């Protein structure tokens, strides 16, 4: 069946052709291309062609910033009666080579237990076994049912809320449909520009955050994007082996951004006061195992390498948020909160606010 191409989409075909030929787009061209696709590409052909060509060529900072600007222009905003210095997100790019449990989601509950407000970008699994959305939905928290009012209330009352940005942004609804069509329904599980920067974008104002990447080549680029977005202080990191988290089994390369200054350095588990683990100590094999690991850590029942991995990343957030003066001090605080089961208290509150206590109870029956 012949389909007439929308006139808006026809205008950006030269941009797609330019990238296919190995040339880079300007920020303005990338922004125009993504805005047009988000609004008018109902079939997904232009969407898939552009993101595949960009990632194959290698995304530039200008192209990624154009994507960010398109999302921010079309996306809704959430006004909070909360100081911006208290609000953060621990989401990263995902897509790491080592298949772990949901480290940043688990760490988010530890950070919320310390009194911060975590607006957690949540999406269903694309490259892994469980995405952040899958974890929340295991306890009856339906991402598709959330709106701006519910999210703002949960942040204020509980300290954490999941969010899938397109679902609260009418002008981004089609972008959300494209992602579901390509990544979930069609099962095209590939890395794209979206994995690099989608979780950088938030409907609330933040000044401090951490961000794990699946590729060390994008560390400085991502830090420069944080500067463009007005962040005061961030940590962007990648760990050897391809882990998009701060590692407790090997070296982590960190790029710290403070104002317009960027500093690159390396840390080891020993620098954080952690016992060095093995890769096999933190890998996961199933969705069910991921959810149980999440619960065991929050309840203080897991005190081994997996809990240490969470502590390393929650501790980094404490350091960035100026709760502590060093990464090691941040890890010590996180380990204390984990041992006390404070993260589980936050989980029970968020389930009471927007989930289903019966579903939580069903999972708890299987926890040893």
Description:
The protein is an alpha/beta fold. The protein has two domains: 7-74, Transferase, Pyrimidine Nucleoside Phosphorylase, Chain C (Transferase, Pyrimidine Nucleoside Phosphorylase, Chain A, domain 3, Up-down Bundle); 84-353, Pyrimidine Nucleoside Phosphorylase, Chain A, domain 2 (3-Layer(aba) Sandwich). Helices cover 47% and strands 10% of the residues. It has 15 helices and seven strands. The chain has helices at residues 7-20, 27-40, 45-57, 61-74, 103-113, 132-137, 148-157, 173-185, 193-197, 219-228, 287-298, 305-320, 327-340, 342-354, 357-364, and strands at 87-88, 117-121, 160-163, 208-212, 233-239, 252-258, 261-267. Strands 4-5-6-7 form a four-stranded mixed sheet, sandwiched between helices. It has a three-stranded parallel sheet with strand order 1-2-3, with helices on both faces. The longest helix has 16 residues, at 305-320. The chain is globular. It starts with 6 loop residues before the first helix and ends with a helix. The model has no long low-confidence stretch (mean pLDDT 93).
Topology readout:
Elements: H1 7-20, H2 27-40, H3 45-57, H4 61-74, E1 87-88, H5 103-113, E2 117-121, H6 132-137, H7 148-157, E3 160-163, H8 173-185, H9 193-197, E4 208-212, H10 219-228, E5 233-239, E6 252-258, E7 261-267, H11 287-298, H12 305-320, H13 327-340, H14 342-354, H15 357-364
């Amino acid at each position: 069946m012949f389909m007439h191409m929308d006139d808006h989409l026809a205008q950006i075909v030269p941009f797609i052709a330019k990238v296919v030929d190995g040339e880079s787009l300007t920020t303005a061209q990338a922004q125009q291309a993504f805005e047009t696709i988000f609004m008018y590409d109902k079939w997904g052909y232009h969407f898939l062609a552009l993101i595949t060509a960009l990632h194959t060529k290698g995304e530039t900072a200008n192209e990624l910033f154009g994507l960010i600007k398109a999302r921010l222009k079309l996306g809704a905003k959430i006004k909070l009666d909360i100081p911006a210095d208290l609000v953060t997100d621990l989401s990263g790019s995902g897509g790491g080579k080592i298949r772990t449990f949901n480290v940043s989601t688990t760490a988010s509950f530890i950070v919320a237990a310390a009194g911060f407000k975590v607006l957690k970008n949540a999406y269903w699994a694309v490259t892994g076994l469980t995405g952040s959305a899958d974890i929340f939905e295991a306890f009856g928290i339906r991402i598709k049912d959330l709106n701006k009012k519910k999210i703002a209330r949960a942040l204020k009352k509980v300290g954490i809320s999941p969010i899938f940005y397109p679902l609260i942004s009418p002008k981004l609804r089609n972008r959300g449909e494209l992602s579901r069509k390509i990544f979930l329904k069609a099962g095209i599980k590939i890395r794209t520009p979206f994995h690099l920067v989608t979780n950088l974008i938030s409907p609330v104002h933040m000044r401090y955050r951490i961000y794990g990447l699946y590729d060390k080549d994008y560390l400085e680029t991502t830090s420069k994007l944080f500067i463009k977005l007005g962040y005061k202080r961030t940590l962007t990191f990648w760990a050897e082996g391809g882990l998009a988290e701060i590692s407790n089994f090997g070296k982590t390369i960190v790029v710290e951004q403070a104002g317009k200054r960027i500093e690159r350095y390396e840390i080891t588990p020993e620098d954080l006061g952690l016992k060095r683990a093995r890769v096999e100590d933190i890998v996961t094999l199933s969705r069910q195992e991921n959810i149980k690991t999440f619960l065991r850590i929050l309840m203080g029942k897991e005190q081994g390498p997996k809990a240490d991995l969470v502590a390393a990343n929650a501790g980094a957030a404490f350091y960035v948020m100026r709760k502590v003066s060093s990464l090691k001090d941040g890890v010590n605080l996180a380990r204390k909160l984990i041992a006390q089961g404070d993260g589980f208290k936050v989980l029970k509150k968020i389930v009471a606010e927007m989930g289903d206590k019966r579903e939580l109870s069903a999972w708890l029956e299987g926890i040893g």
